[in-house]
Amino acid sequence: VHPDMIIYIGEAQAGQAIVEQVSGFEKEIGVDGVILTKLDTDPKGGVAISILSELKKPIFYIGTGQGYTDLEKFSPDFIIDRVVA
Questions:
Q1: pTM to 2 decimals?
Q2: Residue 25: left if φ>0, alpha if ψ -120 to 50, beta else—which one?
Q3: 48 near 16, Cβ under 8 Å?
Q4: Maximum CA pair distance of the chain?
Q5: Closest Cα to residue 74, out of 47, 66, 54?
């Protein structure tokens, strides 16, 4: 348990803007990782790839729907499957 973790929660549909937002939060307060919601609106998962490659921040969970049950632990395979498909 890390009660002092700082997690950025943002919508994938924000596109490249979310990368800038996470970067800004990183500069001001630091960010330990990301929860990325509405990933089902990003056909190829480009936002997740940018967060992982440009910012070197882990994505802890992704949201792929409207309910709490649609929040799932992030797996790189989820993005790989979308890019290859």
A1: 0.83
A2: alpha
A3: no
A4: 38
A5: 47
- pLDDT tens profile 3-43: 789 999 999 888 889 999 999 999 999 999 999 988 877 66
Q: What are phi and psi of 45, to 5 degrees?
A: 75, 25
What phi, psi does 37 have (nearest 5°)? -95, 165
Residue 63: what are its φ and ψ, rounded to 5°?
A: -110, 130
- Using CA atoms, how far apart are residues 17 and 15, in angstroms rounded to an integer? 5
Convert the pLDDT of each residue in 54-82 to its tens digit.
Answer: 999 999 999 888 888 889 899 888 777 76
**What CA–CA distances, in Å, run from 20 to 2, 55, 72?**
25, 10, 24
- Asked if 12 and 39 touch (Cβ cutoff 8 Å), the reply is yes
Q: What is the C-alpha separation between 84 and 25, in angstroms, rounded?
A: 31
